[in-house]
Design goal:
Three copies of one chain form a homotrimer. Chain A is α/β, with parallel strands linked by helices. Chain A contains twelve helices and 19 strands.
Chain lengths: 448, 448, 448
């Protein structure tokens, strides 16, 4: 059934605040969230949710410890008061009061005096980056430890040390936050980020902040798709979401995982396992047409939460739009992934790429010509110059777009298909399609 | 049902007149047609048809003004007696007695005295090519005007001008000419050119002349396909043909639009919208195998009459075989597209490319081996040398062609498919197939 | 029905004798077989079979003269006692006592005195390689002749010559040898070589020897596929095999023709007509992963016995794994294709490539994850490091292989498919699959 061709208006990005203003807002929010101690469970997540809730009607979802999530079980809740390691002279060589990275995440409660030899298996450092503290975790094995600068580790004197992990590891729950922004369609796009890392700025706070800002900008706009936002602990959070939504995953037309979106690198789009879904193609088209410096890579089964969405039992078209991928920048999972690494302009640029991709997705319609036999007479509809001097020249993008859209409006080509075949930018084709629809020459094919 | 493998003999091009003789004939015909004033209707078309009818049993088809052709309506018939523009001093700065391009095509009858300011909107020139007269039209909007050299336009003095368009614009009809050359099969190949331009030589008289010469050479030959020739005004002519043939378009296996076939450039094949039809592949193969300097480009929805045949409601495999495409040579739609621009040798070369393509089409048969289990014993049939020294060497094209044809004669490969897979020229494969068929080793598969 | 994931263990190549030992054995066997006079029929084939039978339980198959094999007929049996050509001075300028190549193969019995002029049509030489004796045959036309060095031919004086071919050409049979090594499956892999050439070492004795050694190494091993070895005269031998097995060819999953495997060149894999069968992909993967210097080429319908298996009526996925293809090395079909041309190390390297390909084929299983929803928790199964620092690094091939196998174990990807998509070596993926299967995370999908 044909529907109003303007029923899907796309995002009007003309009313967007200036990029520098958005970047500054995003960085300020990131700086506010940075000091909070987060892990895959615990009060840090709830405090993070409370900050985000100031601007967004979040739903906070708690999944109790012990809940079976496919092959996994939600662990006990970990809450850290403090952790420190005192040298024989009493000097604290590691102390979570200085950096939340100093403790091996999920360390069991410990209060022990031990000699350096016995201590060593509990100490983690980066020999190649001796001035940085690494981020290390032991979520599923009972262990404790400290992460510290290799330079410090090397200088530790013999003697008796005091190791204190003042934490609780008890039945509780794992905290996620969700937000659904309804659109005209019940087809869903998933926008998701992991928020389980402690004081690391690019991986993954930048993604948390980007999603919050994106949600704020989408709220209240007329939308085609229904957007489902998820902030959750890595791996287990998506699994809990997938478990809760198991009987309605057929509504999901695609998704993007946000992380590492604030560093100085160009954008990187990592395709979903499917690789050529509408979601994948919309992101790639938006990056190309938008002039965003970027590269595209195929799916690999390591990285972030796309691993869960793209596991063979789900195989959802969920890609990852980031800047420098994790593992590939030297500050990754170290104390150098800090507020300096993340730049306001890069945050704003990443946000714009997300908006551009959504704008394409929102309006990627399959059209059918109402006048498919021969070319329609454009002149009498004011869609062609009155004095003809031949075909439109290459620089007449609008006129060429009109001809492409009419030629490909056979009910089988969406605007993305047309953009691929014609080489004409998506936005020009869309503009042409809207004009033609206004003139009664196109109808929107159902489906899409 | 197997049929005689020699039932489709192809064109025997050995009896073709020499290229220089053909080129001279074609150019002479073009020179004869050049001065006739043509537009999308009018006596000029009938006079052109009369010239072509000397050699060809043309059927002249008239479509009355007011006839609805899909989204279009056939306009009133335009007949020009004369049109001129006199400067204040009486000098005629534009005059169709000098060039049929001087009048805006389809100008309404006018006899007016007006000052330069009022005249200006009715004057058209080419600032970048100040010595050339442009070709401009206003078929569907009531208007009048003159086209003149920009150099002249710039030198026009103030004062009162006299503008005269002595023409009729009245109910009449639009004139096309058709010719059907029947073949053994009722499958049809369409060969079409637009003939609506006034004194322009390459675009489009060269195509008119090429088709006339091609038709003359095909008449009386044994043919497989039925060839349908059409000379008609651009856009409306094809639409009228499509309307008349609407219930039998499923017979059309492909077509070629001829225009711009006489300039100095190499050949250009513009694929049909389908892009990989048998017609497309035959043309491309003929150009490659025939050693014609050429390039191939994908379909775009602007250009010539292929736009109508390739509209989504018809989507016929109609390509365009030309030299320099319209819009891409500087003389296009100007007074410089004249008898000098079109060269006899180029006309003859284009004709040869058309003949080569038809020769491939005519004989692109799907074969089936009668001895598909293992290789047949060629030696006992005189198809292999008696003293064996190993496989045929690269230079033994005929022997390799025999082996390829036998190997691929599984009822699924046509000779074009075999040429694509083997890299062996089409003609060598065809020769091999004919030898094998004569030896009883191949039969023609129906279909094709 | 899932089956034991280790049911197909692959070849354990760790217990293989050292390459130099294998090479020496192979060359010694080749040297033993070299002097035997072979043709497409005759005692030479039976003597060759007797030598191979020392190590292998061969079945010798005789096909009587006159048997119809599709388009061919088994000729009379040819047995040569001696053939020589004496010059006017009595000097024997060609003599099969010196080289079996000196006689035109299948020469009819002859004892004639004739002058040089009359003799010339019966003499064959290589003007471009004047010191070599060519190999020429006349299997299907009654003829006789001598092959000799062009240098000798050119120096022959006028006078009367004596030409003696002391041979019998009488009803008998054509001799092939077969060996079937049964595997768990009744799906078959065919390994075949032609053995009809006289004293030519690379083409084709090297293939005969390679297959014999390969069979010896496979005998007694647990195998998935059933391997069917065939040594037979070129063209007619495969046709006889195809005729005998006509009603069970649907069991054949692929095959390889062995010839020209001992020269100094790199390996060449000539794909089957199908081109992308499992057999083709396994060979190509084995060559790449195994670091064998090699090239791959598409099927052409000339070469060796693959021509029969790949004829359109059979179209079996039979490729050819060789070193320098026939026709492409200067010693081909001349007296220079001798024991010096074939090198022990090259024979052993070729054998290894065959074993590697079979090893891939044997274990190319389609797997299905038992825990497809999200990633399974590898840590609790000891398949992932306890202290997490992020995704596996590029050098952690085993960890990446595990993630790829899990992600692609959707019941549609075989290990070859996984290797193609992931870029991870087949053996690493297989090792990962076995570990995962041992942990209960994978089952083997039927089929394959």
């Amino acid at each position: 059934m044909p529907v109003d061709a303007r029923a899907r208006p796309g995002l009007d990005l003309a009313d967007l605040p200036p990029a520098d203003e958005l970047g500054a807002q995003m960085h300020a929010l990131l700086a506010e969230l940075f000091p909070i101690h987060r892990s895959i469970t615990g009060e840090g997540l709830r405090r993070t949710a409370a900050v985000l809730s100031r601007d967004l009607p979040l739903e906070v979802v708690e999944t109790p410890s012990g809940t079976q999530l496919f092959d996994w079980v939600v662990p006990r809740e970990w809450n850290l008061r403090e952790a420190w390691l005192a040298a024989p002279d009493g000097r604290r060589v590691a102390d979570t009061a200085r950096s939340s990275l100093h403790v091996l995440a999920y360390s069991v409660p410990t209060r022990e005096r031990l000699r350096l030899d016995a201590l060593r298996p509990h100490l983690f450092s980066l020999p190649d980056q001796p001035d940085l503290i690494p981020f290390r975790t032991s979520y599923h094995d009972d262990n404790w430890g400290f992460c510290l600068e290799h330079r410090v580790l090397e200088s530790l004197p013999e003697g008796e040390y005091e190791a204190v992990v003042d934490a609780t590891l008890e039945p509780g729950s794992m905290t996620s936050a969700e937000l659904t922004i309804p659109g005209a369609s019940d087809r869903e796009i998933l926008l998701t980020g992991y928020w389980c890392h402690p004081s690391l700025a690019n991986d993954n706070l930048s993604g948390v902040v980007l999603l919050a800002t994106l949600a704020r900008l989408l709220l209240g706009r007329p939308l085609h798709y229904t957007y489902r936002f998820l902030w959750s602990p890595g791996t287990l959070g998506p699994l809990a979401w997938l478990e809760r939504n198991r009987d309605r995953l057929d509504r999901v037309d695609g998704g993007i995982v946000a992380a590492c979106v604030g560093d100085a690198g160009p954008l990187t789009y990592k395709r979903s396992r499917q690789g050529t879904s509408r979601l994948d193609r919309a992101v790639e088209r938006a990056l190309s047409d938008g002039g965003h410096p970027h590269s595209v890579r195929d799916f690999v089964p390591w990285g972030g939460d796309e691993r869960q969405f793209c596991s063979p039992g789900f195989d959802l078209p969920v890609g990852c739009l980031m800047r420098t991928p994790n593992m590939e920048y030297p500050e990754y999972h170290t104390s150098a992934d800090d507020l300096e690494l993340v730049r306001p302009a890069q945050l704003a640029g990443s946000l714009r790429a997300y908006l551009d991709a959504i704008d394409v997705l929102e309006t990627d319609v399959v059209y059918r010509s109402t006048s498919p036999h021969g070319e329609p007479q454009l002149g009498k509809r004011g869609l062609y110059r009155a004095i003809s001097a031949g075909a439109p020249r290459p620089e007449e993008v609008g006129a060429r777009a009109i001809q492409w859209v009419l030629n490909l409006a056979d009910g089988r080509h969406s605007l993305l298909d047309m953009a691929d075949r014609s080489g004409v930018p998506f936005a020009a084709l869309r503009e042409a399609a809207w004009k033609l629809a206004d003139a009664g020459l196109l109808v929107e094919e159902e489906a899409a």
